[in-house]
Amino acid sequence: MKTPLALAGVVLKELYRRKDFYVLFVLTAVITLLLASVNFFNDDKIVRYLKEICLLLIWISMLVIAIVTTARQIPAERESRTIFPLLAKPVTRGQVILGKFLGCWFACGLALLIFYAFFTVVTCSREGHWPLGGNLQALWLQWMMLAIVIALALLGSLIFAAPSSNTTICFVVVAGILLLGGHLNAIALQQTEPLTSLIYAVYFIIPQLEIFDVRDLVIHDQQLLGWLDCLGASLYAAVYTGFFLLAAWLVFRRKPLSA
Amino acid sequence: MDAILKTDNLWVEYRAGQRGGAKVAVRGLNLNVQAGEVFGFLGPNGAGKTTTMNVLLGFVTPTRGEAHLFGVNVREPIARQRIGYLPELTYYYRFLSAEELLRFYARIFGLTPAETERRIDRLLKLVELESARKRLIKTYSKGMQQRVGLAQALINDPDLLILDEPTSGLDPLGRMKVREIIQRLKEEGKTVFFSSHELGEVETVCDRVAIVSQGELRVEGRVADLVREHQANLEQIFLRIIGYQPSSLS
Ligand SMILES: Nc1ncnc2c1ncn2[C@@H]1O[C@H](COP(=O)(O)OP(=O)(O)OP(=O)(O)O)[C@@H](O)[C@H]1O
Ligand SMILES: [Mg+2]
């Protein structure tokens, strides 16, 4: 385990020093604060509106951070040839995959903490009460979902040669699942036979990412999910993450590396 | 005595792009490097030197044949516990400083923090990067990068060093330093296997050399024996082997 953790440390250090994503933090902060400063008549409505925009920005920013960061990890190692001195040490390719995954996932966790801390401060100072439990739960579930996305992007980075095509494909797939995934069963019913089964099959195979989206509960200050549901969702995420990481390892294991 | 580095009838074919055909980079190579030797691995550009090293490090699986380090098949990661490797043309993590880079590699070998710091101090002194140790690697010159590479290859105090053109990109002084380092490693009883195009330097530091051309072993032997046998220096032997005719230029 020390090797994957050491690798994860390097991923974090790189992100911290590259500073690309600071732009997203600043952008989210500016847009939200601008909205917060506008005054409408109905104070109740504006808080809700503010929350909605802020959460949407957080979701989009986090997907960008997760996919873009992950997609370039292994291609960058190969391009700069740093993969060679690395694998010349007693490091297995499985450890490289695990290390890259952990690094990107921890980085996303940190980014989420910053985003949600900001979200909590901005919205709660307006509302006057502090629903920490709900926000914490939303953060946790989003982090679990990002684990699946990161593992998927890592797998993609080993299959598609160009990081940019991998990034695009990941965005399309993730956005597709988030927007359509939950409705596929309904869509399947409206089709004729071979298609119905096919769409059903897809519905059962793909990870249902939208179950991790509890933005509505946060916006409307509704009851939290039960902790058991939360645990179930986390296990669900762990299974898919493990599956994608395993697939990534199988692809990477026998890949000849020579520049 | 057992060979520390050994290849048996090694064949490596690369799939050549879209059209299918295969490019044979290494053809039936047999090498034996004994403990304590400095072994020069020579050959013209494209002869298959880097490819052979890629097999030794497990980056490429051979089409046929096997390779062993310390008697362990190179497919096992553990075969790489006691080796140090300097790749050709590598850029290290640009956003780390030399000492952070070495600390990262030391962690992989499971060195204790105290031991790590001791080795980093010693190695950075050896490759003369002490004054730049806290600077990010992206600000280094080519020669400095090459020297960071040498330092990382030595971080685990390896018994076998595999160096791919260790002096490329270095100035005359830098080359002499690398030669001195190789000599010192030899005195410590380490084994060094390296490729080079600098035949004069090879002649001074190597015990034995092998010359490959188009993936095949052409000559192998002790430098002194070869020179005596062929009545020529290493450079002349090399040129003769790769089929260079002096008249073809005039
Ligand atoms: N990834 C690859 N795909 C296809 N062919 C390759 C690949 N890598 C190397 N080759 C070919 O294999 C042969 C051997 O290359 P290699 O890099 O081992 O040579 P080398 O002896 O290290 O040469 P140099 O002195 O220039 O470093 C060359 O003909 C090269 O074109
Ligand atoms: Mg080479």
Explain this structure:
The complex is a heterodimer of chains A (259) and B (250). Chain A is mostly helical. Chain A has one domain (2-253). Chain A has eleven helices and no strands. In chain A, 36% of the residues are buried. Chain B is α/β, with parallel strands linked by helices. A six-stranded mixed β-sheet of chain B has the order 6-7-8-3-9-10, with helices on both faces. Chain B has a four-stranded antiparallel β-sheet with strand order 2-1-4-5, with helices on one face. Chain B starts with a strand and ends in a 9-residue tail after the last helix. The interface between A and B is medium-sized, with 24 and 38 residues. Adenosine-5'-triphosphate is lined by residues 14, 16, 23, 25, 43, 45-51 of chain B.
Q: What can be said about the biggest beta sheet of chain B?
A: 6 strands, mixed
Annotation, overall tally of beta strands of chain B: 10
Helix content of chain B: 25-40%
**What number is the mean pLDDT of chain A?**
86
Q: What is the average per-residue confidence, as pLDDT of chain B, rounded to a whole number?
A: 89
Uncertain residue segments of chain B? none
Shape designation of chain A? globular
Strand order of the largest sheet of chain B: 6-7-8-3-9-10
Distance between the termini of chain B: 49 Å
Radius of gyration of chain A: 20 Å
Assembly type: heterodimer
Biggest pleated sheet of chain A = none
What's the domain count of chain A? Answer: 1
The fraction of residues assigned to DSSP E strands of chain B is 25-35%
Class computed from helices, strands and strand pairing of chain A: mainly alpha
- What is the β-strand count of chain A? 0
Q: What portion of residues of chain A belong to β-strands?
A: under 5%
Query: Helices and strands of chain B: which structural class?
Result: alpha/beta
